[in-house]
Design brief:
Strand content: 5-15%
Strand order of the largest sheet: 1-2
Structural class: mainly alpha
Number of helices: 3
Number of domains: 1
Radius of gyration: 12 Å
Length: 78
């Protein structure tokens, strides 16, 4: 099990997520993002807008995911 924060995953808060795989971590982050979108949380909406801008560049999403996957893999087990 490894732990990352919302901020480590390009979010806006210090909420922690714990998962066995990066795919699980990404899903937890996505669920949190949807909750924050529904709540219209201003800080998270800005973070989402920033990510949308980044992801508009060709290959940017794949590169971002790979860098976060490497960051996850480098983390120590909890």
């Amino acid at each position: 099990m490894k732990t990352m924060t919302c901020k480590q995953l390009a979010g806006a808060c210090d909420k922690t997520f714990s998962a066995e795989t990066f795919e699980e971590m990404a899903e937890l982050s996505k669920q949190h993002g949807m909750e924050m979108f529904q709540a219209q949380d201003e800080a998270h909406l800005k973070a989402m807008s920033d990510m949308q801008t980044l992801m508009s560049k060709p290959g940017a999403m794949e590169a971002w995911f790979e860098s976060k996957r490497q960051e996850f893999e480098a983390l120590p087990e909890d």
